[in-house]
Structures are given as structure tokens and as C-alpha cells.
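ok new one. same drill as before - C-alpha cells go in, u give me an amino acid for every spot. 61 of them this time. try not to just spam alanines like last time pls lmao
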């Protein structure tokens, strides 16, 4: 299952690993290419949850 990682500061999916050894001896550290965020926290979302709901303006008619 593929999950998308979002930056917690700018809310964009532009995170990349900041170090080559992340996850082996050191914790995973991510760097955002859109803002200056560097850290271990991120927002992870399933791509199915990104689908926008259908427009329900005609619900009451």
C-alpha cells in the first residue's frame, strides 16, 4: 500500500530523506523541498482519502 507523506509545516507532499542512513542507526529524518522544515514528523495519508467528495449542492432540491 502506498501512502503519501506530507510536510507538517507547509502541508505539501514534498518530503525526502535528509540522511542516507535514516532508519538504520538513526531515526528517519525528512527534509521538505518547499519550506525549510527538517524533522522526524510527517503527515501520512492514503491516496484514496485525497479524493474530493462529490458536490452535494443538489441534495435539498
Amino acid at each position: 500500500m502506498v501512502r503519501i507523506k506530507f510536510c507538517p509545516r507547509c502541508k505539501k507532499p514534498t518530503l525526502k530523506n535528509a540522511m542516507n542512513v535514516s532508519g538504520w542507526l538513526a531515526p528517519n529524518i525528512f527534509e521538505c523541498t518547499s519550506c525549510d522544515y527538517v524533522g522526524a514528523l510527517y503527515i501520512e495519508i492514503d491516496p484514496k482519502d485525497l479524493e474530493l467528495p462529490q458536490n452535494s449542492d443538489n441534495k435539498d432540491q
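The two ends are 40 Å apart (CA to CA). and btw The CA atoms of residues 9 and 50 lie 18 Å apart.
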